[in-house]
Design goal:
single chain; alpha/beta; ABC transporter transmembrane region fold; Rossmann fold; 20 helices; binds adenosine-5'-diphosphate
């Protein structure tokens, strides 16, 4: 009985550890609510869709597999070789034989190292290509979405999809899949080699497998909990940062830095704690696997040595010193992959979550889409008509436009006036088919905008939005938007729209840098640049939403003169806040709460003594006073 004492000690220790961990499993309840993002698509479905990204690279993956098999061969053959050498040097041996073995071992090692290297290189290259593919596809898809859909997704989210999530997904291929294949092969290979060498010792070692499985499952449970907490805290920090960095100037001007700092301090501390939690879980798991490994080695030595001394192991199978040495090496190779498989699990889960988030974007059908039989317009004459248009941004929101009808003939200029929120910008947006109307029709040259290819419509309409967006880059790149246009033509157009003085006054002219948020240009200057940007495309109809923000008198005069010139050139639809700008329009529509309450030209509307007259008198009096 005494000879089994060591085995009993090992068994009892393992049993105690198992019980302790199971108790922890029962006691420690997950305090983390399920993440904001719940997975709804099955793993199988995701793998199926992901396989599509791998498809173009199958040859690379096959090459990787081959190289992996070569490097695994070393893992499985080398212990055998070492065992063989151990046997060899026991009897009288020839030094030359030993050299041969050393060279053989070195050769195997070299081949293995080289194949590992090439495997890693091919895998990383392929991984980068897959990231690019996913990113390009996601970006192209986002470009195809309608304004309505884009309004619904915060920009920060889109950024994360294209950057982090794409990377996380590619890890499925470069990291998880590759390791999975490798580790499974190693476990199977090592097991087979051990069975061939000595099935009795192998069976004894296999007694540890149930413990390995138990500990791995528990680890998976705890690590998932810890990861979730960590992720939750990370997204807390991200959300806080993206909001507060954008609003930093407000924070500073209201002297709220202290409070915000405390809030942030709290969040980073919590995140730190969560990370420590994850490290703790790993800190428990890894030593436990090590304990298992050590026990397995002890048991091997115990039974191996005993068998060696007795001349045969428990059931009479012969044991040599070489077998024990080989087994000693195999046990390590058996435990390593198992630990790494368990640790990969979380990477896989987070990659799948990322994949699902990307797929959610990919699955958004663009709502404003060309019909199959949509027509291409080479030219737009400029008849614009609204027929009983009803429109709202939200399904269940208030109507923003209520039964709006009007007709503008080619060549005419029309102006929309009305207080903020009355629906002026919305009307312009609908003409450009940025949104679909719910009731009624928007007609351009007699065609419903829904029947016209959006690309041809947008090419022929020159839109100048209320808030001009300038990209970081140069003035030139903002005007040409990537088209190849000679400077001479750019300057001609700038002259037409009164932006030439602005450009020439810049230190670097067209090469002047535009900073992030275009803060080195005033609202008025931005508007002038937007006129030039639009005019460079020589549109048939111009659509202008005048900026409301404060503009200095000088720039205002420039803008006014510029609008005047543009309005003379052809069909123009203008929203103007300074009524003097649009005095000469052929048609003026006065909007209030989404309805046209007055229409006519300037003289008619003044004669009517209605809302327009009221607004006009108010403005002229103000101007006189100023
Ligand atoms: N993208 C949008 N989503 C939801 N509501 C919007 C959106 N854009 C504008 N609105 C609402 O539609 C109404 C009209 O807005 P808008 O056409 O911009 O007015 P205006 O240009 O006359 O100031 C406002 O009440 C505004 O809040
Ligand atoms: Mg507006």
């Amino acid at each position: 009985m005494r000879e089994y004492f060591p085995i009993i000690v090992v068994g009892a220790t393992l049993g105690l550890i198992s019980i302790a961990m199971l108790v922890a499993y029962v006691i420690v309840k997950s305090k983390v609510k399920a993440q904001a993002f719940e997975r709804t698509v099955s793993d199988k479905e995701i793998i199926k869709r992901l396989a599509r990204y791998a498809k173009p690279y199958y040859p690379s993956f096959i090459a990787v597999l081959m190289l992996t098999l070569v490097s695994i061969a070393y893992q499985i053959l080398s212990p055998y070789l070492v065992g063989y050498v151990e046997e060899m040097i026991k009897d009288e041996f020839v030094l030359g034989d030993l050299f041969k073995m050393v060279i053989l071992y070195f050769g195997m090692l070299l081949v293995s190292v080289l194949s590992s290297y090439f495997q890693a290189v091919i895998l990383q290259k392929t991984g980068q290509k897959i990231i690019s593919d996913i990113r390009e596809e996601t970006f192209a898809h986002i470009e195809s979405l309608s304004h309505e859909q884009l309004n619904g997704i915060p920009v920060g989210k889109l950024v994360t999809r294209v950057s982090n999530d794409a990377e996380s997904v590619s890890r499925v291929f470069t990291n998880v899949a590759a390791n999975l294949v490798k580790n499974v092969f190693i476990v199977v290979g090592v097991l087979a080699a051990m069975l061939v060498l000595n099935y009795e010792l192998t069976l004894i070692i296999l007694c540890f497998v149930p413990f390995i499985i138990l500990f791995t499952l528990l680890f998976r449970h705890f690590s998932r909990m810890a990861y979730r907490r960590e992720k939750e805290k990370t997204s807390d920090i991200n959300a806080f940062l993206s909001e507060n960095l954008s609003g930093m100037k407000v924070i500073q001007s209201f002297n709220a830095d202290g409070d915000k700092y405390d809030e942030f301090y709290d969040k980073t501390r919590q995140h730190g704690k969560a990370v420590l939690g994850t490290i703790f879980v790993f800190g428990i798991f890894r030593p436990i696997v090590y304990v298992l490994y050590t026990f397995a080695v002890l048991v091997l030595f115990y039974f191996g040595a005993k068998g060696y001394l007795d001349g045969a192991s428990l059931f009479g199978q012969a044991i040599t010193g070489g077998v024990i040495v080989s087994f000693y090496m195999y046990i390590e190779r058996f435990f390593d992959p198992i630990q790494s498989l368990a640790e990969q699990f979380n990477v896989l889960q987070s990659a799948f979550a990322s994949a699902e988030k990307i797929f959610t974007i990919m699955d958004m059908e663009p709502t404003v889409r060309d019909r199959e039989d949509a027509i291409e317009l080479d030219e737009i004459k400029g008849d614009v008509e609204f027929k009983n248009v009803w429109f709202r941004y939200d399904e269940d929101g208030d109507w923003i436009l209520k039964d709006v009808s009007f007709k503008i003939n080619a060549g005419e200029t029309a102006a929309f006036v009305g207080s903020t929120g009355s629906g002026k910008t919305t009307i312009l947006s609908l003409i450009c088919h940025n949104y679909d109307v719910q009731k009624g029709q928007v007609l351009i040259d007699g065609h419903d905008v829904r029947d016209i290819k959006t690309s041809s419509l947008r090419k022929r309409l020159g839109q100048m939005p209320q808030d001009v967006f300038l990209f970081t880059g140069t003035v030139r790149s903002n005007l040409t938007l990537g088209d190849d246009i000679p400077d001479e033509e750019i300057m001609n157009v700038c002259r037409e729209v009164n932006a030439d003085k602005l450009v020439t006054s810049l230190k670097d002219g067209l090469d002047e840098k535009v900073l992030v948020g275009s803060e080195n240009f005033s609202a008025g200057e931005r508007q002038l640049l937007s006129f030039a940007r639009m005019s460079l495309r020589h549109p048939d109809v111009i659509i202008l939403d005048e900026a409301t923000s404060n503009i200095d008198t000088e720039t205002e005069q420039l803008i006014k003169a510029s609008i005047d010139k543009m309005m003379k050139k052809g069909t123009a639809l203008v929203v103007a806040h300074r009524l003097s700008t649009i005095k000469n329009s052929d048609k003026i529509f006065v909007l209030s709460h989404g309805e046209i309450i007055e229409r006519g030209n300037h003289a008619e509307l003044i004669a009517k003594k209605g809302r327009y007259c009221e607004l006009y008198t108010l403005q002229t009096r103000k101007e006189l006073l100023a």
